[in-house]
Design goal:
The protein has two domains: 42 residues; 52 residues. The chain is built from five helices and no strands. By secondary structure, the chain is an all-alpha fold.
């Protein structure tokens, strides 16, 4: 996919946080910003408006609460994706039929 550069302004605290995240993830600040933008543009306009209202009228605690909720939902979604992929990869034709086969399989997996 072709990419292009866009500019964004960030306050000093945000810029420093982006630099720390980029360093800890071995990515560039531009990659962190691009990931944030990809997430934001997928949100519906109502979520954009709500976010702006929370930023304007809310407190730091409100923003922290929002971040926690988004984090929780993101981790839930990651689990769902992993679970769905795991189920798709399971081979149902190799189902174990008896208790002895279950025990043999369990012993084999622990060795």
């Amino acid at each position: 996919m072709a990419a292009r550069t866009i500019s964004a302004y960030a306050d000093e605290v945000t810029a420093s946080v982006i630099e720390r995240i980029a360093q800890s993830e071995d990515r560039s600040p531009a990659q962190i910003a691009a990931a944030a933008l990809r997430f934001y543009v997928r949100l519906p306009s109502e979520a954009h408006a709500a976010f702006r209202r929370i930023e304007k009228m809310g407190t730091d605690q409100d923003m922290d609460m929002l971040s926690r909720e988004i984090s929780r939902k993101t981790l839930d979604a990651e689990w769902e994706v992993a679970h769905r992929r795991l189920i798709a990869e399971m081979k149902t034709s190799e189902m174990i039929a008896s208790e002895d086969e279950i025990l043999t399989e369990a012993v084999g997996l622990t060795q």
